[in-house]
Structures are given as C-alpha cells and as structure tokens.
Amino acid sequence: MLCRGNSLSSVVGWGDNISIDTVKASFAIRNSVGLFLSKLRDRGLLYVDTISQKEIDAKGRLIELNFPESRISLKGKITHDWDTRIRKVSASGTVLSENFAVTTNSYLISPDELVRIMEEFHPRKVWKVKLETEVNYDVVCARR
C-alpha cells in the first residue's frame, strides 16, 4: 500500500490558508496508519513518505524555479512551526502569463515520529528507506 507525496500530513485538510486542528490531525494520522496496516495481507508492505529530515534540519527551505522557454517562474517558501505543529508552504509565480499566490498548511510530522506511530500497531518490521531518486521526502515502510 502506498501513501505518497507527504499526503498523510494533510489527512484533515489541505488548501489555500486552511486552518489545521493539530489534535484532530494527530489522531487522524494515527487512525489512518492503523487502518492502512490492518488492511494489509500477511507480509503486506506499507510505504509512507513524509517531509525529509534534511528539510527539518534546514528548518524549511526556499524554492525558486524558472523555465523561460515555458513561461513558468515559481518561488516558494516552506516553514515549520513546531509549537503549533504546522508546516506552511507559500508559493507564488507566473505560469503562461497567469500570476498566482497560494499558502497551504499541513500537520508537521517527522520521519522519526511516523516510525514511532507505526510501531504502536506492532507490525513485523518498521524501517526507513533511502531511495537515491527521492529528493523531496523520507520514506518509512512497515511489513505486517
């Protein structure tokens, strides 16, 4: 079973400047992980990715992408607020002469926290996977 794109952290909502109830989010993440694991067959594999430890260590990041031939220019900023457990992504730019700006909030969960949550459900094994081609996320797997 796959849960890609750091989507688990958006289990209670995702969108432009949405407010996140972090207590509800924490409960929903635990519930989702438990449900995922319960649906696996014996020896089934759960693959979930989260923000990278590299991003956490850098305390967020700045992003700037320019593709002049495609008329695309993007700027973004990712910030972490560990007190409120909010990860905020602010982005703006131009795509084909159309300007946009958006800010999204999601629950801030680390790879280590995801490991601990998975272990609460006592699968056979929980481990972090380092994929050479994955640069945005850290991967955590569990085998039922």
What do these coordinates show?
This protein is an alpha+beta fold. It has one domain (2-143). It is built from 3 helices and 8 strands. It has helices at 22-39, 53-57, 111-119, and strands spanning 2-3, 45-51, 61-67, 72-81, 86-95, 98-107, 125-129, 137-143. A 4-stranded mixed β-sheet has the order 1-2-8-7. A 4-stranded antiparallel β-sheet has the order 3-4-5-6. The N and C termini lie close together (11 Å).
Helix share bin: 10-25%
Structural shape = globular
Number of strands: 8
Give the rounded overall mean pLDDT: 91
Protein structure class: alpha+beta
- Strand percentage lies at 35-45%
Strand order of the largest sheet: 1-2-8-7
Give the count of structural domains. Answer: 1
Radius of gyration: 17 Å
- List SSEs in N-to-C order: EHEHEEEEHEE
Q: Number of helical runs? A: 3
SSE blueprint:
Elements: E1 2-3, H1 22-39, E2 45-51, H2 53-57, E3 61-67, E4 72-81, E5 86-95, E6 98-107, H3 111-119, E7 125-129, E8 137-143
Parallel strand pairs: 1-2
Antiparallel strand pairs: 2-8, 3-4, 4-5, 5-6, 7-8
Descriptive key words:
22% helix; alpha+beta; four-stranded mixed beta sheet; 144 residues; single chain
Short overview:
This protein has 144 residues and is an alpha+beta fold. The chain is built from 3 helices and 8 strands. The protein has a 4-stranded mixed sheet.
